Amino acid sequence: MEQLASDIQELHERIHEESAFIDLLRLETSKAIVGQKYMIDRLLLGLLAQGHILLEGVPGLAKTLAIKTLAASVDARFSRLQFTPDLLPADLVGTLIYNQKEAAFEVRKGPIFANFILADEINRAPAKVQSALLEAMQERQVTIGDKTYPLKEPFLVLATQNPIEQEGTYPLPEAQVDRFMLKVVISYPSKEDEQQIIRQEVGGKRPVVAQVVKPDAILKARDSVRQVYMDEKIERYILDIVFASRTPADYQLDKLKHLIAYGGSPRASINLALASKAYAFIKRRGFVIPEDVRAVCHDVMRHRIGLTYEAEAENITSEEIIDEILNVVEVP
What we know:
Elements: H1 2-18, H2 21-32, H3 37-49, E1 53-56, H4 63-73, E2 78-82, H5 89-93, E3 94-99, E4 104-109, E5 116-120, H6 127-139, E6 141-144, E7 147-150, E8 156-161, H7 174-177, E9 182-185, H8 191-203, H9 215-227, H10 232-246, E10 260-262, H11 266-282, H12 290-301, E11 306-307, H13 309-313, H14 318-328
Parallel strand pairs: 1-8, 1-9, 2-5, 5-8
Antiparallel strand pairs: 3-4, 6-7, 10-11
């Protein structure tokens, strides 16, 4: 037992040292992005835990600027894709072009070959394009012709959805939404933050974001994130949260039984554990505490709980169901 405590303390000290660059990244991104600390932290979670993010929010909330700024501060390649109904999979992954001079086909790689991808309004593109993107996200490779090309790490996809316009959109099927590690819902900035945004924009002086971290440091940090200590009690706590979304009656949550169509998949358990470890790393800690799990729970679970027609008729959201589960499941 003493040996374990000593090992955890040693790990904590090492991770406290290795996670110092997080403060540098936060400081650099805050030069260009006013407020939106929650969104930046969630982008860092995805980056450190090798998970992609689905971002929902009305236009004009600095979604593009956030990922562009993060890419600049990590010295990584950035691609922005505006998804439209006439987009083809080749526009995303690339295609074979015939070279008359060489009398042979050559590969022209698409914008997916970057480190940070912003898939703007993913629900505007048809199913073929959505599945091409989701395959690249899952496999981290792309097939063009008869050859497979690996995608360079770090590789992070930030897909956005506009919640206010549903005309001419192709909603993502539940099975595909499940591939996103986090679904982050962002809201308007505070009055003070918006005043600062006005001054920054009207003044015309855009801050220059410096490169403060190398991609190699991110890859090294990912290994450290997986080494963050997670006690068996925390593992059971994560399982209880996910299982309560599947079989609420087993957790004295009978009132949720008729509101949940389906609960979190095994991906929910895996991602909740990984996101908790990444959150502990961001907090510069070498071990996970229950507060880490609770902090990321809504982002990991909100798109993995299916609501019944009854729940929709009563205007009950997945947020409220997660709140109820967190209130009832015993904290270790």
